[in-house]
Amino acid sequence: MFYYYQESPLFERLRQILESESAPLLLFLLAAALGLMALAIFFRAYRIVLMALLIGQMFSAIGGAGQGIFTLTRFGAIFALALIGFPGVTAFGPGQLMMLAYAVYVLLLTGHSEFPMWSLQFSGAFLFLVVGVAGATTRYVTDIRKLQNALGVVVLAALIWTAVNAVAGQSSEIRSTGMGRYAGVFGGTGSMAGIGGLLPPFLLWGFLCPWRRIYRYASLAGLVVLLPMLVLVGQRIGLFAAIVGLAPLVWFRLTVKRLLGSVFALAMAGVLSAVIVSAAPRQTQEFLLNKYIHRVGYLSGRDVRWQTMLAICMQDPILGHGAGTGDAQATVRFGSATHNAYISMFYDSGVIALGLWVGTALYAILRSFAFVVGRAPPETREIARLLLGCLLALSSEAFFESGLNSPTNLNAGLFLLCVTMVECIVKLHRRAAEGIEGYGWVGAPQSGYAPRPLAAR
Description:
Elements: H1 9-18, H2 23-42, H3 46-58, H4 65-85, H5 94-108, H6 116-140, H7 144-169, H8 189-196, H9 200-208, H10 213-233, H11 236-251, H12 256-279, H13 282-294, H14 302-313, H15 326-334, H16 341-373, H17 378-397, H18 410-433, H19 444-447
């Protein structure tokens, strides 16, 4: 296992592709994808590259030669976004600067790593991810409408992910254990729950967003299908993250109409879940009942793992042991990952890096909450609710799952995207307050919103 961490995973994924029986077809598809990526860079097609990144991260846990394809796709998208977004670094806000400081600090600790080759790629890729996602999004978002368009890319990626897993569940590709745990196309319930639990807030927002009906109804259908799948996975973390992420979108409603829309969507998902579970075999019903009701509060041995890893972290609390090595150490000792992103960060890069990440999360959460309860146009508050829910879901899920600081993980991509979008809202709000010409709050005339000058605050 340690041998894997002593070589470059990119070379390992490329080797998987070359050794596959369908290597020519896979190489052709990879070349086509890289060609499209090059065109996207030339034309600064931000949304296309962002979609490639999200798809690559969403299917990062898929097995076989497909894993190599998605690995190279997301690394290509990270590099493409970095080229597009590098000029946007000069416009970073406090949250983005803290993430940039985290990435640079972790990269500087590579020489202290137990596995330098692995840590160099891990920390280097994360630095490119910060520059790419934060910089490219900052350059692209010039008004609230473009912010909605960028979020629409996430909604579309969520629909694709849901559709692929739903189709796989209806075919011979379904993988279930003897207890009836649904694993989608991944073969592992952890990946299915960890990714799926972050997507419901985006789908609910897509249903409530004033788009064309076909997009809204597609988002509703995706939400109604996704939530029952999360129930059948039998992993509490998936439903926990979904509930946390959906809460701000349901509690802080602007109008009765949108409140009823939220309740209607969740009620449909609940009814479908109940119907599916009631039609499932008795063994599956007993397993799900035991998982969600009888074992509430049971950590499946994670508490012992956390105590052991924290004791190791305290041996070098300042510099850590090298980026990306925390899960390797946990796998050697316990057979699987740390299952706590904050302990992984502490082990990898020490308390300073952990402090930068936690500080960024708190900053973004407080900023988004201020827009939710503050005086802003309806569309802005709606986006702030979505960002608040996603940030809370990511931050809470990180207490039980690793991957928040991994450049190839969806959690890291969404976290950086949400932090950047919060900063975009702050800057757009400031521009409106200063009366800069060309700025447009979507929906402001209808809401009667008129920002006060900064000096009057």
